[in-house]
Design a protein that fits this description.
There is one protein chain. The protein is mainly α. It has one domain (about 5-290). It contains 13 helices and no strands. The chain is globular and about 50 Å long. The two termini are about 30 Å apart.
């Protein structure tokens, strides 16, 4: 049982982590000239430097051994998460922030399906109900975009959600692995994606200083500090609390761009997003009631 005193520490930390994560949309919209590949590359490099320093400090001479022991699950999880990072940035380029974030939030349902197919895990009735609700929300959002002859951004957002599902499966295969090792691998993968994307698209590497600093802030503060706050808060909270509190990212993100730059979500986006968030809430609360914890999925991070 988590004590009240510890919860008073954990709740604001996880809430604040969600707020930091939620700034990805507004920070991306403030980019002036940099392409998605520039943002992906420089954001990843910034986070890679921060993680390298932290892991070096934490493991010191044992770092190489720790990385080698992480094994195939960490590599597979890193590939999935790196793909999710890339998919999310590309989604922001081609659709509204609200659509990208709401669709990214559907990752737990892909995790449940992947667990059923790859690990033979049983899907409880309440989880099927939650997935049906989420599927309706996704259909409403994606259907509107497809009717307008769009949908590319939604496709990238769903790719990111599937990537986070792959991360969850990899962590369940070897639960003792330090999650930061998997994230470290993921950032390397995302850096490679950004580098290859820039080369293939023929863009040069130089960007305005404002854009470069913005990318560094996305790596160090938006993702990096968000992870640090979430990890610190997670020690003091139950799993269901962490799942629900981290949803502040998905709720606050569209509001920030709405107020900050006037990007107003469509009615279909709000209806679909509400259904997805309701499904996540159902999945988390029923999972906690049934087994004393939430279903084993990771909160997606953008």
């Amino acid at each position: 049982m988590v004590s009240t005193a510890n919860r008073r520490i954990g709740i604001p930390l996880v809430l604040l982590a969600g707020i930091f994560w939620s700034t990805s949309g507004i920070l991306y919209r403030l980019i002036q000239e940099a392409t998605p590949w520039h943002v992906l590359l420089y954001r990843s490099v910034a986070l890679l430097l921060a993680l390298s320093l932290w892991l070096g400090f934490r493991y010191r001479s044992q770092l190489r051994i720790t990385l080698s022991r992480a094994g195939i699950p960490a590599l597979a999880g890193g590939l999935c998460l790196g793909t999710a990072f890339a998919g999310y940035i590309l989604a922001l380029e081609y659709t509204m922030v609200a659509n990208a974030m709401f669709l990214l939030a559907s990752a737990p349902f892909f995790s449940a399906l992947a667990g059923r197919i790859l690990l033979g895990e049983r899907i409880a009735l309440y989880m099927w109900a939650a997935m049906a609700i989420a599927a309706m929300g996704i259909g409403i959002m994606a259907g509107e975009e497809l009717s307008l002859g769009k949908g590319l951004g939604e496709g990238f957002a769903l790719l990111a959600a599937v990537g986070f599902a792959g991360l969850t499966i990899s962590l369940r295969i070897r639960p003792g692995t330090d999650k930061l090792i998997t994230i470290f691998v993921a950032v390397i993968v995302a850096t490679i994606y950004g580098l290859v994307g820039l080369i293939l698209s023929g863009w040069h590497f130089t960007v305005p200083w404002v854009d470069f600093l913005n990318c560094l802030c996305m790596g160090w503060f938006q993702i990096g500090l968000g992870f640090a706050l979430f990890t610190a808060g997670a020690k003091h909270l139950q799993a269901v609390e962490m799942t629900l509190l981290s949803m502040t990212e998905v709720i606050a993100g569209p509001i920030i761009v709405w107020v900050g730059i006037g990007e107003i979500p469509s009615g279909a986006s709000l209806i679909g997003g509400t259904l997805i968030l309701a499904a996540i809430t159902l999945m988390a609360l029923m999972g906690a009631r049934a087994s004393g914890r939430t279903p084993p999925f990771e909160a997606p991070v953008s």
